[in-house]
Amino acid sequence: MKPYLFPILIFLMALVALPASAAEKIRVTFTNRSGYEVGYYLSGGGGVEARLADGKTYTWNVTVDPGVKPFVRIHQVKGKSRQFSIQDGGQYVFKVQNGQIINAYK
Question: Which of 17, 36, 69, 93 has the fewest CB atoms found within 10 Å of its own CB?
Answer without folding.
Answer: 17
